[in-house]
Amino acid sequence: MRKLLTTVLGSCVLALSLAPAHARDEIRVGVTGTFTGPAASIGIPYQQAARLFPEEIGGRKVEWVVLDDGGDPNLAVRNARRFTEDLEVDAILGSTSPPGSMAIFDVAIESGTPQLSLAPVGIPADRRTWLFSVPQPVPVMVSALVEHMVANNITRVAYIGFTDSWGDQNHDALLQEAEKAGITVLTNERYNRTDTSVTAQTLRMLGSNPDAVFIGASGTPAVLPNIELRDRGFTGQIYNSHGSISPFVLRAGGAAMEGSIAPTGPIVVTESLPDDYPTKAPALDFLAIYEGEYGPDSRNPFAGYAWDAMLILSAAIPAALDVAEPGTPEFREALRAAIEDGREVAGTHAVYRYTEDDRYGVDERSRVLVVVTDGRYEFLPH
Amino acid sequence: MNTTLGLLLAQDGIINGTVYAFLAVSLVLVFLVTRVLLVAQGEFVVLGAITIAQLQRGEAAGAFYLLVGLAAICIVILTLRLWRDRNIRAWAWQVGFCAVSVGVAALLLWLAQSVSLFALMVVTTLAMVAPMGPMLYWIAFRSLADSSILILLFAAMSVHYILLGLMLPLFGPEAYRAAPYVSGRIDAGVTTISAQSILVVGVFIVLTAALWFLFRFTMVGKELRAVSVNRIGARLVGISPDMTGAVAFALASSIGALAGMLIAPMSNIYYDSGFLFALKGFVGAVIGGLASFPLAAVGSILVGITESFTAFYASAVRDSIVFALLLPVLLYMSLRKSHGRPEEHGE
Questions:
Q1: Structural domain that includes position B17
Q2: Domain-located, residue B232
C-alpha cells in the first residue's frame, strides 16, 4: 500500500514538474481502441475511420493520436494516462469496447478531459461531468424491437444472450420495455461467446412455446442460436441485437439469418431512408469517403460511431477556440461546455444533442430496424 | 422434462462428449508417454476445423504457413542439437521428416485446390496438421524430456500461447464453419438421430479400435506402452525417447485434426476455441485418472452430458458446474492414494 502511495505521489510530482500546461497551436485528440485480440473485428473499423479524420478543424491543425488497447482495460487506462499526462490531449475518444471505455472514466475525470466513449456504456449520473457516450444506449435500440413486437401481436418472447454484460444489458432492456408493452419474457438463457453448442438452451426456449425469440449476442457468435432455432424447426420471428450487424454474421449464418430483424443505426441502410431523414446527408458524405478507401462492401455501423465522434468535436471546437488556446485546462473546459450546450449535430447514426443532463444525446431518430433479405440488410419501415 | 426432450439433450451431450473424448484420449496418451500435459492439444482441433473449412471455401490454407514456419524452426533446432549430440542418424531422419512433410503437404494442398474432392481435403488437412505434433515435440519438449511434470506443463502452456498468438494473424478473429458432410436425420423410433452425430460416434469407435490394435499388436505401440510403464527401463532396452515422444505427439495432432474436422460443420470455430476444448477433455481425462483410455472416454462423455443438461436447467452457470465435476473426483483420488500414476517414480 505504502509502495503504491509512493508511486502514485511520485508520478503526480513527476507529472506536475514535467508537464506544465503548454498552450499550443494545434489541437490534439487521443483515440484508444481495440484493434487486436478477440474483439478486433468490431474495433478495426473504428481505426479505419480514424485514418480518414480531417487534418484541420476550425482553421487549426488537429493531431489524432491513435493507440491500440487490445481489449485490455489496463492497457486502455495506460493509453489514457499517456494521452493526459505526456501528450496533454484536448479530448479522448474511446475505447471501442465497453470494459475499456469504462476503465478510463477515472482518467478523464481526474485530468478534466472530455471523453467520448465509442462503445455503448452506462454513464453514472454523479460522475458524468466529463463523459459522453456516442453509440445509442441499449434501451433505445431494444425499444424499437418491442415496438415491432407490439405492432405484430407478439406477446410471448424467449430470450437468449451472452453470459456477460452485453447479454445482461439486452436482457434488462427487454424486461423493462416488454413490461411496459404487456409482453411476457419467457426465458433468460445464456451462453458463452466461445460455446460450440446451444442445443439445450434452444430446446428449453422452444419448450416455453414463444411467438418470437430475441438473441442478445454480438458478432459471429450470434449466429449459433439463429442456426439452432431454424434447425429445430422454429418458424417464429427471430430478433437479433444491434451488435450482430456485420457482413461476417450474414456469411456465417447463411440461410438461417433470412427474415431475422435487428435494430441498428440508420447508416447501415442510408440509401433506403427518405431524403429528409436528418442523418442521410452526413452518412452519404461519410460513406463516399469510407467506401472509396476500403471498398464498396466495407460498410459497417462501427466506423460511423468514430466519424460521429469526430463530427461532435468539430462542431464544438470553434466555440472552444474563442475562449482559450488548445493544450490548456481552460480549453478542455470550454470544449466540454461547447459539446453539452444543447446544439444539434447531425451525424451518420443520429442527431446528437447533449445537455448537462443527457450524456447520450440521441432520440428515436438514431435507430432503424433492418430485416435480412437475400443475404443483405434491408430497411424495415415501422 | 419429458422423454423426447431428455433423449435430445442426451444426444447433444453424447456428441459433444465424444469430441471431448478425442481430446481426453490424446491428452492421456501424450501424458503417459512423455509426462507432458499437452494444453496445446486444443489448437490441433482448431487447425483441423479451420483448415477443412478453408479448403471447402477454396481459400488459401493458413495452416500451411504455420507448418512451414514450424519446420524451419525445427530444422534449425535439430541442427543445433547435432552440434552437441553428434548423432547424425537421428538428425537425418528428423530433418528428413520435416522436409518431406512440408513437401507432401504442399503437393496435396495444390491438388486439393485444383480438384475439389472431399476425401482429398480430409487427407490434405491431416497432412498439414499431423506433422506439427512431432515438430512441436522436437522444438519445445525434447530437450526438457527429463524435467519435472511442472516444467513440462509450463512449456506446454508457452507452446499454447505462442500458437494462439500466431493463429490470430493467420486466421483472423472471425468464425469458421464447414459445410455439412452428411445431412439428414434418421428415425430411430423414440427419437431422431442426426447423421452427423452418427459420423462423430462412428469415427470415434473406429479410432478406439485402431488405437487398441496399435498398442496391442504393433512394435511401436508396444514401445509406447513400455515407456509409459517405465521410462528408464525402456531406454535401457534401446527404446529412443526421440522416437516415442514424436510418435505420441503425432498421434495427438492427428487425433486433434480429426476431431476438428468432425466438429467443423456443427459449430462456429474461432482461432481461440481450442483451449476450452482441451480443458473439457482434460476434465474427462482426470475423471479417468489420467491413466486409462476407456475411463477417459467415459469421463468425457459424462462431461458432455452434464454440460447439455446443466445448459438446459441453468445455462448461466453451466461451465461452473462442469468444472466442479473435478472436485469429487480429485477428492476420491486423494483419499485413495494408490490410484492413478506414481508420478516421478524411479527417476
A1: 3-173+191-335
A2: yes
Q: Model confidence at B128, in pLDDT bands (50, 70, 90)?
A: very high
ipTM of the complex: 0.73
Do A2-136+298-364 and A138-264 come out as alike in CATH topology? Answer: yes
Element (H, E) at B259: helix B241-263
Please work out, in degrees rounded to the nearest 5, the angle formed at the alpha carbon of residue B28 by the alpha carbons of B23 and B31: 120
Cβ count near A293 (within 10 Å): 12
CA distance A106 to A123: 12
* B 238-297 residues with CB < 8 A to A: 263, 266-270, 272-273, 276
- Nearest by CB to residue A248, choosing from B174, B276, B309, is B174
Report the distance separating Cα B55 and Cα B122, nearest Å.
9
Q: Cα-flanking dihedrals φ and ψ of residue B195, to 5°? A: -60, -35
B169: closest CA among B268, B62, B276? B62
Give the residue among B268, B167, B173, B59 at the shortest CA–CA distance from A45.
B173
Does B268 sit within 8 Å of A223, measured CB to CB? yes
Measure the CA–CA gap between B323 and A195, rounded to whole angstroms: 15
Backbone angles phi, psi at B179, to 5 degrees: -70, 145
Euclidean distance between CA atoms B37 and B159, whole angstroms: 11
Query: What are A205-228's pLDDT values in tens digits?
Result: 999 999 999 999 988 889 999 999
- All cell numbers assigned to B21: 473424448
Instruction: From residue B290, give the alpha-carbon distance in Å to each of A128, B33, B163, B284.
Output: 54, 12, 25, 9
In a domain, B346, yes or no: no
Residue from the list B270, B307, B309 with its beta carbon closest to the beta carbon of A194: B270
Residue B161 lies in a domain: yes
Task: Judge whether residue B328 has pLDDT over 90.
Answer: no
| Domain annotation covers residue B302 | yes
* Residue B193 or B64, more confident: B64
Q: What is the pLDDT of residues B161-176, one digit of tens each?
A: 999 989 988 988 778 8
**E strand or H helix that includes residue A76:** helix A73-81
A63's grid cell:
493531431
Q: How many CB atoms lie within 10 A of CB B84?
A: 8
What is the count of structural domains for chain B?
A: 1
Fold of A138-264: Rossmann fold (3.40.50)
DSSP letters, B281-346, are HHHHHHHTTTT-HHHHHHHHHHHHHHHHHHHHH-GGGHHHHHHHTHHHHHHHHHHSTTSS--TTTT
Query: Tens digit of pLDDT for each residue in A113-161?
Result: 999 999 988 898 899 999 999 999 899 999 999 999 999 999 999 999 9
* H/E segment holding residue A175: helix A165-181
A45 Cβ under 8 Å from any chain B Cβ: no
Class of domain A2-136+298-364: alpha beta
Q: Smallest CA–CA separation between A40 and chain B, in Å? A: 7
pLDDT beyond 70 at A32:
yes
